[in-house]
User: Which sequence fits this backbone?
């Protein structure tokens, strides 16, 4: 029931979801238990193995819903903007419940909702590539969001849009027009 209600919020109002547990005859490298996720996104659809019937976007939303009840990892691949915004709401809810949420994302709707933003980048020298991470300042967050919203040439419109996304973050749970 919790899965269905989470998925309805993520644009899947007619979803049906069931987990079937079973056992193999013999214990193997993965143990003896089997877990099958049965899924239908449509009212009249037959429950089938999720790997056989779900699209990439549907699988991403199911993963977020499962992980929202457990733990969140990179989750926003292949979803449209409105659903990304709802996914950001789910992750924000997890953080508000005293869970640490770390999201590696290229979606500005999700990145804007974070309490902090770290930039992960690589630098090459003559012999190796090194990965780095650093906390961005408020203005660097605007520039980073603007890059997510724009092409290589940043415009004033992209920066204004980025600022608007970041300003919506603290009041996201209030009415959109108030």
Assistant:
């Amino acid at each position: 029931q919790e899965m269905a209600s989470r998925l309805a919020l993520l644009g899947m109002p007619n979803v049906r979801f069931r987990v079937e547990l079973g056992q193999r005859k013999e214990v193997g490298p993965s143990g003896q238990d089997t877990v099958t996720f049965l899924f239908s996104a449509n009212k009249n659809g037959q429950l089938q193995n999720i790997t056989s019937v779900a699209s990439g976007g549907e699988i991403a939303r199911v993963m977020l819903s499962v992980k929202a009840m457990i733990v969140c990892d990179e989750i926003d691949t292949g979803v449209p903007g409105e659903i990304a915004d709802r996914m950001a709401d789910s992750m924000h809810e997890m953080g508000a419940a005293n869970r640490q949420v770390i999201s590696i994302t290229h979606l500005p709707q999700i990145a804007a909702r974070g309490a902090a933003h770290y930039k992960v980048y690589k630098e090459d020298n003559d012999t190796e590539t090194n990965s780095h991470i650093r906390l961005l300042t408020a203005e660097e967050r605007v520039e980073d969001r603007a890059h997510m919203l724009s092409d290589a040439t940043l415009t004033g419109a992209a920066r204004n849009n980025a600022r608007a996304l970041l300003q919506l973050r603290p009041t996201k749970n209030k009415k959109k027009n108030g």
Notes: The chain has a mean pLDDT of 83. Residues 81-96 form the longest helix (16 residues).
